[in-house]
């Protein structure tokens, strides 16, 4: 579903990602692990068209998106839940979700989104900025789902969220995958969450993929060694 | 200063100056609504806003002359066409300016100050070259002339009532566009986080252009209304731009209600004080009060209380 080949990303002269190759199968949840500064967020941002790609290509469902603007990428089926959630704070919960409907031209929030996140239905008239961190995270996911994506990117969704909600989130992400049959790429530092949610674990170290293994055969200690400081 | 007048005279003076203030208020609101969108929402310091207004005024002037010369039978209703044309002309110029100038400066908001100031000088000279340096006035259809006598000494001009009704309709329209329509929702999303708005699938470039054009178009309508109460010269826009910025900042940059409330406060204070004091003294007092209030409430009269 998502094909990334020979993928280089640089900020000016300093290259951060030195040629990544990976594919995400339809309906697969892939976790990209790595410590701070290893290039996880840069990968997410460049897949979303926020940071330009310097070499290589990315394709969603066979369509090359490498040189598209962000909103064209969204139209081609990629959606993004950024680190720090970045919801629109002065807009209501419902309006936040509706921004995701811009691509499809629908005007009503689909019911299944509120089914996934009932708390958002209760709070749909509140301003996004007044929600708690966990609720804002749900709102950011709901907003991304409203674009009807084929590939959902989540950048460190557990950051700043309390443990009980993290477990709940892993459950919700698997449910979204099962119901909507989309591929999910989640960047993560929390190993327990990644093992909880992912079908496959990649490790990003200094801008290169150094480890790629299905969940079933993951050697926890080895991955943990990559994450320790 | 009140001693020279009797109580009834004072009452009438306040009523009539109050009404003159309401007309000023209407023009301020129309100017400020456009600027509240461009400066309050988009963060572009548009020094050329007054010139967009004057463009609307000149379009109205041209319309009035053309209709008077070629289709005198339509003269009674020409104003409505003129207003629509003023909106379109100012909006089209706004879209052109956004495309050629402003879109390169979203990441450098202070540079928009210099760029649009330069634009305002260019436009002023263009008006001077095309329409001449002399001020021009439009002739109003008969039904807009005259006044309604309320009592023996209080009279209310009809064109003033028309400007106020117009302002009311436009203010409601702007509210619906910004807060009840898809375009408004996308505008607010882009304004709050341009990068993220793109990443949820909003065509940010298109939204920016439409928003800027809308703000300029409303300035054009303000100019059209302005012709009814004053004459139009190449530099007339300059007289209003400072007041307009003052209103938007004082009202709270992102709040429409704030913009309207502060237009009301400032125009009423100006108009009432101008009768009793000199014009510049009235201005000094207004500015001092605004500065004082802004020191107590730096975000303006109305600001949203949320976590950011």
TrEMBL record, chain A:
GO terms for molecular function: ATP binding. Keywords: Amino-acid transport, ATP-binding, Nucleotide-binding, Transport. InterPro entries: AAA+_ATPase (IPR003593), ABC_transporter-like_ATP-bd (IPR003439), ABC_transptr_urea_ATP-bd_UrtE (IPR017780), BCAA_Transport_ATP-bd_LivF (IPR052156), P-loop_NTPase (IPR027417). It holds the Pfam family ABC_tran. The keyword Flavoprotein does not apply. The keyword Nucleotide-binding applies. CDD domains: ABC_TM1139_LivF_branched (cd03224). Residues 2-227 form the ABC transporter domain. Belongs to the ABC transporter superfamily. This is Amino acid/amide ABC transporter ATP-binding protein 2, HAAT family. It comes from Roseibium denhamense.
UniProtKB/TrEMBL annotation, chain B:
It is a multi-pass membrane protein. The chain crosses the membrane at residues 20-40, 52-71, 77-101, 153-178, 212-233, 245-266, 275-296. Its main location: membrane. It comes from the Bacteria. It is found in: Cell membrane. It holds the Pfam family BPD_transp_2. The keyword Transmembrane applies. Keywords: Amino-acid transport, Cell membrane, Membrane, Transmembrane, Transmembrane helix, Transport. Signal peptide: none annotated. PANTHER family: ABC TRANSPORTER PERMEASE PROTEIN, BRANCHED-CHAIN AMINO ACID TRANSPORT SYSTEM PERMEASE PROTEIN LIVH. NCBIfam families: urea_trans_UrtB (TIGR03409). Belongs to the binding-protein-dependent transport system permease family. LivHM subfamily. This is Amino acid/amide ABC transporter membrane protein 1, HAAT family. It comes from Roseibium denhamense.
């Amino acid at each position: 579903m998502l094909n990334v080949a020979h993928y280089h990303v640089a900020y000016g002269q300093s290259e951060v990602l030195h040629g990544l190759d990976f594919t995400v199968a339809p309906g697969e949840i892939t976790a990209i692990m790595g410590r701070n500064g290893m290039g996880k967020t840069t990968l997410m941002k460049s897949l979303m068209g926020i940071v330009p790609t310097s070499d290589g290509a990315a394709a969603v469902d066979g369509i090359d998106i490498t040189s598209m603007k962000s909103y064209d990428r969204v139209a081609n089926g990629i959606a993004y839940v950024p680190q720090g959630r970045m919801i629109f704070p002065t807009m209501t919960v419902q309006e936040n979700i509706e921004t995701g409907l811009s691509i499809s031209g629908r005007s009503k929030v689909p019911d299944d989104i509120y089914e996934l996140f009932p708390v958002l239905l209760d709070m749909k008239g509140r301003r996004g900025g007044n929600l708690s961190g966990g609720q804002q995270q749900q709102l950011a996911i709901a907003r991304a789902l409203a674009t009807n994506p084929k590939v959902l990117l989540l950048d460190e969704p557990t950051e700043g969220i309390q443990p009980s909600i993290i477990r709940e989130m892993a459950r919700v992400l698997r449910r979204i995958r099962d119901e909507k049959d989309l591929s999910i790429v989640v960047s993560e530092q929390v190993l327990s969450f990644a093992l909880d949610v992912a079908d496959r674990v990649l490790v990003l170290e200094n801008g290169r993929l150094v480890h790629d293994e299905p969940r079933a055969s993951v050697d926890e200690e080895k991955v943990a060694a990559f994450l320790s400081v | 200063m009140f001693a020279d007048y009797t109580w009834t005279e004072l009452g009438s003076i306040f009523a009539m100056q109050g009404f003159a203030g309401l007309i000023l208020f209407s023009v301020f609101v129309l100017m400020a609504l456009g600027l509240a969108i461009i400066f309050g929402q988009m963060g572009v310091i548009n020094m050329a806003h007054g010139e967009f207004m004057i463009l609307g005024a000149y379009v109205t002037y041209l319309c009035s002359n053309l209709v008077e010369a070629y289709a005198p039978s339509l003269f009674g209703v020409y104003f409505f066409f003129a207003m629509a044309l003023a909106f379109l002309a100012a909006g089209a110029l706004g879209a052109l300016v956004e495309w050629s100038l402003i879109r390169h400066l979203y990441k450098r908001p202070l540079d928009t100050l210099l760029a649009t100031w330069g634009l305002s000088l260019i436009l002023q000279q263009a008006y001077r070259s095309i329409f001449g340096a002399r001020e021009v006035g439009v002739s109003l259809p008969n039904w807009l002339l005259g006044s309604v006598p309320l009592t023996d000494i209080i009279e209310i001009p009809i064109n003033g009532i028309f400007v106020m009704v117009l302002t009311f309709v436009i203010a409601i329209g702007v509210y619906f566009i910004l807060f009840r329509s898809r375009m408004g929702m996308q505008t607010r999303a882009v304004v709050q986080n341009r990068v993220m708005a793109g990443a949820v699938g909003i065509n940010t470039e298109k939204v920016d252009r439409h928003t800027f054009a809308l703000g300029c178009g409303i300035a054009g309508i303000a100019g059209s209304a302005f012709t009814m109460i004053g004459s139009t010269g190449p530099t007339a826009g300059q007289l209003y731009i400072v007041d307009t910025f003052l209103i938007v900042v004082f009202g709270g940059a992102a709040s429409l209600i704030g913009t309207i409330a502060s237009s009301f406060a400032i125009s009423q204070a100006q108009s009432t004080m101008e009768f009793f004091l000199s014009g510049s003294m009235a201005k000094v007092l207004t500015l001092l009060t605004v500065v004082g209030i802004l020191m107590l409430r730096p975000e303006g009269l109305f600001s949203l209380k949320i976590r950011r």
